[in-house]
Amino acid sequence: IFEGIASKMSILGLKKKQPKTFKVKVITMDAEMEFSCEVKWKGKDLFDLVCRTVGLRETWFFGLRYTVKDTYAWLKTEKRRKQDNGKKYYSPITFHFLAKFFPEKVEEELVQEITQHLFFLQVKKQILDEEIFCSPEASVLLASYAVQAKYGDYEPNFHKPGFLAQDELLPKRVLMQYQMTADMWEEKITAWYAEHRGIARDEAEMDYLKIAQDLDMYGVSYFAITQNKRDTDLLLGVDAQGLHIYSPNSKLNPNKSFPWSGIRNISYSEKEFTIKPLDKKKDVFKFYSSQLRVNKLILQLCIGNHDLFMRRRKVDSIEVQQMKSQAKEEKARKKVERQILAREKQMREEAERAKEEMERRLFQLQDEARLANEALLRSEETADLLAEKAQIAEEEAKLLAHKAAEAEQERQRIEATALKTKEEKRLMEQKMREAEQLAVKLVEQSERRSKEADHLKQDLTEAKDAERRAKQKLLEITKTSYPVQKTITLTNKSYSYVEKSKHLQDQLKELKSEIESLKLEEQQQQQAGVYSLRNEARGYPPEQPYMPHSNVRTTLHAP
């Protein structure tokens, strides 16, 4: 029905007039958003749209900040955006969605997780940009919580050295203050990071804020002012606790403070601010600010911080109570979920460890099976080899048995031969003794014959001498002409000497031949004895002794 009516209205030219809009870019701490806003919208409409988009319910801490010339301002919720001379805005207007007011105690006032997260991101950026002073020790500790919030629990096998190289975690002032490399800083941060195991992201961010809220410059907005009469340059600090007066060069320790509980009234007229203490005995403090926009901003921050200060001292509204109840339930639910997740993670880790152990055991069993299989193959090969060796050993045993039998036969033969040889040896020794005795006799006979020969030689010499004398005498007789008878007699005597001499020479020759024969026979008998002993030592059967020249006479005739 409505589609039909709309189509008829379009035909009749009765189109609905579209509202005028303009583009707005909103930058949060972790995102950029672009909205199309109607011209008639108030600042509250855009702010509510951004809060709904982000999912934020604790809206009283935040605001939309924009830059005006050389300062900044916060978008007012009850005013509309103005146009200059009715011109349209072609380029988007940029706003930054930031925390405008800070809580006194983050763990009690920040209920939603998104609220905690936005505060965490903003405070971390202010510390890194050195808008909030932080000591090196606290910077390292805060960086470890930031790493825990981003990466979760530390895992040495996953978070290798260098995994923080792309993250900005420490202020440049801290990095320049010490002569340390990026790896050394990462090592220090990782050492603290490893101690945060089991802390969830929202808890790590809350722990970060708990440490940051104790810093001197946390949540303080600074403005340049001058004091009346002396015209002294000072700094005004506005935070959740009250107003603070600082020296221009020191933003850490205030010279004077005015807590919200001790301030009765704050007022300003053009450039003059007046702070009236609750104690009427104390002097009124006045200061001056040269810029009107800055004065309005100071008053706006004073009013908002004072309202929140008073609100904290009252009973929470129904909305806040509901949010806290829901947040409590949500935290309890998340705690249970984290516990369940932790148990599941633990069970998964145990299962993975059990799996790894089973895989390790499986690999071990596979290795053992492989080794057993190899051992079995080696055993089979060894068994075959042993069987072959056994067969060879059996054949060798048979061969050895056969050889043993042959050896036994040989032993018996040798024993028999030894017995025979022993008898032959005894006979040989007896023959050798007889031969030695014979040789001794022959030697004795030889010596005796030598002596006889010597006698014969002596007799021969004497005969030759007698012959020579006879010849000489014969010559003498011849010369003196003896009678013939005497000559014949002498001639017969000489002849008989000559015959005797020849006979002696023949006997000497025969004796010499017999002596040489006896010596040769003795040598042959000794050699035959040596040959017999050698043959007997080698196991050869004894032979008959070699007796050369058996026909030589062994007796000598008397001369």
From TrEMBL:
The gene is nf2b. The keyword Membrane applies. It comes from the Eukaryota. One of its GO terms (molecular function) is actin binding. It is a peripheral membrane protein. It is found in: Cell membrane. The lineage of its organism: Eukaryota, Metazoa, Chordata, Craniata, Vertebrata. This is NF2, moesin-ezrin-radixin like (MERLIN) tumor suppressor b. CDD domains: FERM_B-lobe, FERM_C_ERM. Keywords: Cell membrane, Membrane. Residues 446-465, 524-559 are annotated as: Disordered. GO terms for cellular component: plasma membrane. InterPro entries: Band_41_domain, ERM, ERM_FERM_C, ERM_helical, Ez/rad/moesin-like, FERM/acyl-CoA-bd_prot_sf, FERM_2, FERM_central. A 1,2-diacyl-sn-glycero-3-phospho-(1D-myo-inositol) binds at K76, T77, E78, K79, K296. Residues 22-313 form the FERM domain.
